[in-house]
Amino acid sequence: MSADASGDLARVAAGLRREMGSKVNTLRLQLTQEMQRIDKTAEKRAREALARLDAADARGDALAAEQSDLRRHVDRKLREYATRAGRLEGEIQQIEGLLRRQQGHVPVDLDSVPPELAPLVADVRAAERVRSTIMDDATRAARRQEIERFEQSERELGETRQRALGVSRSLAVRKAGGWAFRRAAAAYRSERARMSEQEAEVAAARVRRDAAERELGRDAAQEQAYRSHPGAAVADRLAAHVRDRIDAAVADYELFPPWFTTVLGHRPASTRTADWREAAVQVVLYRITHEVTDRVVALGPPPEDGHRAAQHHAVQAALGQLDE
Amino acid sequence: MGASQRRAELLERQRELRARHDALGGLGAEPPYGPGQLDRVFSGTDELMTVVDELAADAARRRLVLTFVLLGVAALGAVLVAAGVLSPWALLGVVVVLAAAIALWLTTRDVPGTGP
């Protein structure tokens, strides 16, 4: 190959290289522009999608608020209807009662018992009187605590006395006026003061302990008396009688007295009949046992404390469970 | 009662207390001791403490007197410095004496038997 031909080939190659370079640059520019365009389009579409999502969110919130309002409204209405239904039921029962009274029906007497059960009731009442003098758990625990407190005070006094005795021994054997003697004197003064305070505390605690022991002794005797009392064992028989009486009254569609209907209504609810009957038995038994004769308040005035208060509370709890 | 008499009484009470302690342990008794035995020991200790308190009160009274003497010396020193009899450097000595008087007075406080 001649030198001219080689130079031509080199020029052609250089021209092709330039042309290729120019085309690559053009293609790169086009590609960049295309990428920018795609970016912009994607960004625009993302913004649009976001706006649509925001709008959907707002619609969802609005729907939730509406649903909440609706639920509240429905709940309120349901309560209103339940109140009205209860009032209507009461009025119907009242009318029924009035009609029955006009027809000569009298409310069933749940407070009295047949003469053959009178000794049983007397026994139950006597047992209950004994039981009312028995301490409740809290009082008994407090009395036991008094005894423990005395023992603790006495133990502490014994410890202080031992320390004082040790210091006194130092005072007896150390050189009078020396450093150890002076330290023992200061310690004895402090222990002696503590001992005097503790002796006064122990004396007071002993008085309380003696009283607590006497009360616990009396309580144990009363508990024993209650356990051995015939009335404690016959309460179930009385409860069975009251249960039969209530069953008969419900079965015969008898009128219940006002004190009964104020807490238990005129008829048992179909869903909780057994609970209703047991609560009714408890109320009637409480009235018979404690001779409550109030015509409106089923359990009479609430007792202040003691076993009767616990019974009152239990019956109230049984009645409260019926409303749940 | 003089200081030596009180000191003798203190030793006497201490001897007596030691004897009561010996009686308490010497009978072969183990704790808990009988209330009578313990009462004898504690009453002996209380008597000893009474003498200790009286001795402390006597010492406190003596220190109080010394406090007043030191206060007087300090006052005299201050007057002499003011009159020009002593050099102003003597005021340092006056301050030292005053500090000693205060320190001494502080030791007389809270001593049993000197209170109101």
From TrEMBL, chain A:
Highest rank taxon of the organism: Bacteria
Name of the protein this chain belongs to: Uncharacterized protein
Species per Swiss-Prot/TrEMBL record: Actinoplanes auranticolor
TrEMBL record, chain B:
Protein name: DUF3040 family protein
Alphabetical keyword list: Membrane, Transmembrane, Transmembrane helix
Lineage, broadest ranks: Bacteria, Bacillati, Actinomycetota, Actinomycetes, Micromonosporales
Keyword flag Transmembrane helix: yes
Transmembrane segments: 64-83, 89-107
